[in-house]
């Protein structure tokens, strides 16, 4: 578990002077991050499985929902089988997508950065 404010604080600090989102026309937040994740990963959920059963697009709540898809107190408090292997695979696919976008972005601004030197 990560404190619910940890990621928000980091994203907020990225908006400060000299940071990556400073002067950005958009103000990225955890809400935007979750929205992007769901938009990209929901249609791809069928490529992952738990115990041999393919996940449905609705199973994206396994990572994004506040209780990580667990329905009751016993499951949310005592069940430590968080399907970590499946979550890791889903998050790895997300990281690959994000890093591809970051690489494309960096390639697009490299000429501007070099000209500014």
Q: Descriptors for this entry?
A:
mainly alpha; 117 residues; two-stranded antiparallel sheet; elongated; 5 helices
What does this structure look like?
By secondary structure, this protein is mostly helical. Helices cover 54% and strands 3% of the residues. A two-stranded antiparallel sheet has the order 1-2. Strand 1 and strand 2 (53-54) form a beta hairpin. The protein is elongated, with a radius of gyration of 18 Å.
How would you briefly describe this protein structure?
The protein is mainly alpha-helical and 117 residues long. The chain is built from five helices and two strands, in the order ααββααα.
Q: Decide which structural class fits the backbone.
A: mainly alpha
Q: What characteristic shape results from the CA principal axes?
A: elongated
How many E strands? 2
* H/E element order: HHEEHHH
Main sheet? 2 strands, antiparallel
Give the termini separation.
Answer: 43 Å
Rg is: 18 Å
Beta-strand share of residues = under 5%
The helical percent reads: 40-55%
- How is the largest sheet built, in terms of strand order? 1-2
Number of helices: 5
Flag low-confidence runs.
Answer: none
Q: What is the average per-residue confidence, as pLDDT, rounded to a whole number?
A: 80
